[in-house]
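Hi R.,

Here are the chain sequences for the assembly we discussed:
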Amino acid sequence: MRVSFGDFDTKSLSVDFNTPSSCLVVDSKYQHDVTTFKFPYKLPQQSSMVVKTLLAMPRWLFLSSKRSCSRERQMHISSLQQIWFACHMRPTKLRIIDGSNFLTEECSRRFCGLSSSPLPAIRTFQETRIFSTNIVREEEEEKQSNRAAFRATPIIPSILAYIEKIGVGMRPKRPKHAKRKPRADFGGKSETLDEIAEADFFAENETQHRLQRLNKDRDSSANVGKGPKGTKKSVTNNQEGSKKRGAFWLPPPPFSSSLRIDNDSLNDSLKGRRVIRRPVKLLGKAGSLHHVLPRESKGLPEVAIAGRSNVGKSTLLNALLYGNTDENLSPRKYQRGGTPDTTKLPKGIKAVTSSKPGQTKELTFYQLTADVMSEDDAHETIEEEGKMSLLLVDLPGYGFAFAKEERTIEWTNLMHHYLLERRSLKRILFLLDARHGFKKTDFDFLGDLQDGLMAKNNGKKRELPPIQIVLTKCDLVQQTDLARRVVIVKKQLSDFLIREPSSLPVMLVSARAGIGFNNVRRDTPMGGVLELQRELAALVPKPQTHGKKK
Ligand SMILES: Nc1nc2c(ncn2[C@@H]2O[C@H](COP(=O)(O)OP(=O)(O)OP(=O)(O)O)[C@@H](O)[C@H]2O)c(=O)[nH]1
Ligand SMILES: [Mg+2]
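And here is the predicted structure of the full complex:
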C-alpha cells in the first residue's frame, strides 16, 4: 500500500497515479482546478490514459476542505465523487477533512496510520478503516474540547460593556413575554457621552446653517439668528430633525465629507476650521513584484488591510471610506441605516467584494484626502489651510482562493515585500473572522512575515508596523461570544509574536452594507466602523494651520 500526496494537477497525475496507491490526499487549493476544469468537463473526451489512471486510483480519497464549504464547492466535490464511483471498479471511500492539516507527512500518519519513512508501512485496507474510525472519534473529541475551552473563557465585563456600547454583535434573545426596552430618543438625552456630543453637534450645526440662510434671506441688519431666543427655538426644531434622520454619527476628519470642528475634544489645531473631503482617489494597483507601487510620501500615512481570503477586507475598506450603507436598500431602510455622509461614489473607486474567496488579486491603493479650510465668523469659507491624507491599501487574501497558483504566489510575494519594506506603512489591520478567530493560515502568514523580517534585519533593528486585530462579521456572533473571542485572540497573538504585541485595542466591526443598524442596535448605525475610523484618523498628521483665526 502506498500513500500519494497528490496535487491533482496534470503534472502530478502522471507521477502519482501511475503508481496505484491506497490513499490519496488532495490539497484543497487544487480542488477548484480538479473539480471545475479537469475532471467533470474533460473526462468524456479523455484518452484511455486518464481512465487507466483513474482505475489505478486509491480506495481512499481525502479531500481537504473547509468545514463550511460553499454550496458551489460542495457541488464540485459531489460531482467529483460521482465520477470517482463511476470510474472505479471498487467502492472508494471519500472523506472531507479540515483544510488546515493536510499534505504533510504527518497527515499520512494521522489518517492512515502509515509511517513517514521512505517506504510507508504496509497496512491492509481493513486496518486503515479501523484506524480512520478512531481518528473521526479523536477529531470529534478535539472539537468538543475546543468548544468547551471557548465556553470556559471568562467574559470580561469591561469588554462586554464596550461591545454593547458600540453596538456590534448579536444581542441575547429577549424572553418571549419580556417587556420591550424603550427605544432611545435621539433628540433627547442620549446614553453615552459620545452620543450627547454628537447630538449637540448636529443640533448646533443645523441651527447655524439655518441661521445663515435666514441671515441671507432677510436684511443683514435684522436682529435674527444670534439672539438666545432664536437659537433655543431652532435647537428644538433641529432635535426633531435629527430624530427624523434616525441616527447620527460623526466620523472624524478626513473620513467626514464636510465638517466644522467646534468640538473641544478634537485636536486644537483644527478647532474652528472646516474640513471638506475630496473624492476618494485610486492611486494605483500592483499584482506582482514587476509592478510599480505608488510612490511613498512623508505626510501620507498608509494603512494596510490584511487577512485570509473572504474575511471581509474589501467590504471593510468600503465601509471605512463610504459608510456601511447600501443604495440598493429601500429608501426607508436606507434612511434608517444611513449616515450623514453623502459622498457620491465615483465609478471604479469602490473595492469589489464577493462571497467567492480570491476576489481581490492586486494591492489596491485608495487615497483619502480632506482640505482644511479656515472660516470667518459668519461661517463662510475663506481659504485652504492644508490637507489631511490617508492611504488605505486593500490587500489580496492568503489561504484558499479561486485563482491560479502562480498568481497567488505572485501576490503573496508582493504582499510580503510591501509589508516588510514600506516605510510609510503605519499600521496593519489584521482581519480575523469573529466566528473563527485565528486559523493556522493566519499564523503561517504572520510567521512568514517574522521570518522575512529576521532575514532582512542583518543586525539592524527594524520592526513591522503595529499590527491591529480587527474582528469582522461581528453581526453573526453573539455579544458574549465576541467578548470571549477578544480575550482568546489577544492571548494567541501575544503567544505567537516574537516581539511584544502592540497595545492597540482589538477592534470589532460588522461592515456589511446596511447591517450595523437594523440587525444590531437602533442607535448605532455603524457597527464598529466609526470606532475604527477614529482609530485610523489619529494616524493622520494635522495640517499646520497659519490662518488669521487662532
Ligand atoms: N455578515 C457579514 N458579511 C460580511 C461582512 N463583511 C464582509 N462580509 C461578506 O463576506 C464576503 C467576502 O467579503 P470581501 O470583502 O470580498 O472579502 P475579502 O477579504 O476582500 O476577500 P478576498 O478579496 O477574496 O481576499 C462578502 O460576501 C461580504 O458580503 C460583515 O461584516 N458581515
Ligand atoms: Mg477583497
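Residues 307, 309-315, 353-355, 357-360, 396-397, 472-473, 475-476, 510-512, 515 surround guanosine-5'-triphosphate (ligand 1) (CB under 6 Å). The chain has a mean pLDDT of 65.

Let me know if anything looks off.

Best,
T.
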